[in-house]
Model the fold of this input.
Amino acid sequence: MALNSNIAMNVGSPQEVWLKADLANSTKRCTVAYWHHPLFSSGNEGPHAEVKPLYQDLYDAGAELVIVGHDHDYERFAPQTPDGVADPQHGIREIVAGTGGGGLFVVYPPVPNSEVLNNNTLGVLKLSLHAAGIPGSSADRGKTFTDSGSTPCHDAPVSVNAGPDLLTHVGDALGLSVTFSDPVSNSAPWGYTITWGDGSSTPAAPRPRRSPPAMSMERLARTACV
Done:
């Protein structure tokens, strides 16, 4: 995805609407995007929050990598959400590749999730793109600094519709309780009801009577949280 961070990027802007539609129509599992201004940066120019709507659309669609410039340095981030929360399973890895020939800028202490930061060597970023991921990428900086790694493709994060709010971010919690009914007759089936945080309930189909299924409660709690 080639995007333009010098024009409107707000939700509902022509570019943002186009991006969402293009991502929805894509049949590819792997997605890489690039534009000029970084959402995350430890460099002199710093972060640009105005690009966040594009980042959010990419994250929701399961994109893997965003490449940016603007800050004249090199910085690689761990996969994270648009809010800057580490997310190794579904996060986007951002790489600032601003060392292509202009004067290098000052940098500040690395911001959260920054893995590599360098501002003393010019160089280029080379990516090898394949259907299953990015098996090889390297930053070659005049042989005085190098960085390399790989990024596998992943699916979009799972969202849980819990009434008025949609849980989509890592760290969101969904309150629930599970009530088991213990029939008097040994031949009667077990039944249980899930009560969600908004007060609504979901009855589940009865199952053959067994000992209280504690593991099922644990599994329900896990799958009900993002």
Q: What stands out?
A: The radius of gyration is 23 Å. Confidence is low (pLDDT under 50) at residues 207-226. The longest helix spans residues 14-25. Helices lie at 14-25, 52-60, 214-223.
